[in-house]
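Exercise 7.
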Amino acid sequence: MQDAAVSILSLVFALTVCIQLYYYLKYFFPLTQFQQASIKKSSIHLSVIVAVKNNASALSRCISSILMQEHTSFELIIVDDHSTELLEAVIANFDDQRIVYHRLNEDQQGKKAAIQKGIHLAKNEHLVFTDADCKVESNHWLEGIASAFLSQTEIVLGHGRFYKRNSFLNALQRFECMLNAIQYFSFALSGKAYMGVGRNLAYLKSTAKCYAKAPEQKGLMSGDDDLFVNKMATPSNVGILPNLGNHTLSEAKNNWMSYFHQKRRQLQAGNHYKPMHRWTLAMFGASKLLFYISCLFLLLFSKQQLPILSIFVVELAIQMLLFWRISRMMGDKDLVIWITVLEPVYYGVISLIGISTWLWKVKRWT
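Solution. The predicted structure, written as tokens, is:
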């Protein structure tokens, strides 16, 4: 019986290694070769949209970082989702004519409604989105986005990193953020863009109007950042900005319960991805989890520990080399050496959270 189990685990282990090598070579390796076009002065007029609810101090930092941009042809639309804090006073401190402030009516509420209102108010065709608790990484953020809008480009994907803090949960969330960005940048580069993050995303107003008319998108509670890209992306209309200087920075969740609820909401949105994208992502995630589980059991019960360990080390070395090269471009290099700890924990935790979404559904979005 034990020999049969070992044989099955050996087959699973070999299969997961092959699957991961396929993803590394087909998707991740091309990202290590990506050369971002030089940032040039652009005459494109942008509408930057920020939905906010309270958190006045964070909003102040966000506005300040946006107003310092080298690209000055923009309006900054701030839509207030019924804040109890006096955000008007924060905005008045800047005394900048480019700022447009709007407070939602009583019959409108939620971040989704705030973003839709911002799109409606925007005067320009090129829309840029970030969150009120984000700080723009450099003064060339908007220049980079404007430069990325080429003739066929309708969507530009950016990276929203988290600040580094001294906790395991912070490291786990930064690793997850890096891993997700590596995946959606890599897939976009191969012509299969499937998601973006609302902390750093840009697209055309005309494309947003087309998305709003799609009947299958009506009634969704959240996740429109992901679902917009998943629905409207084509092999040729998506640009990416993975390099340092084009990122936004924000705080990660500071406790496990908040992280748990956040991931449940995000996984629920992922159920609306195109079947091809769901299958491709699930295949990679499942192969990772089974890779670690089968390797552990084979090292404990197999008589071929040395070959198993050798394959594990080679696979890990390839992954670390790829991630190291990508992290030099994207940041968070300190996480690469902790892959053997962070990765199995992440896939284990995310699997349990995924199971929880099957057992009880997310009924509200906060």
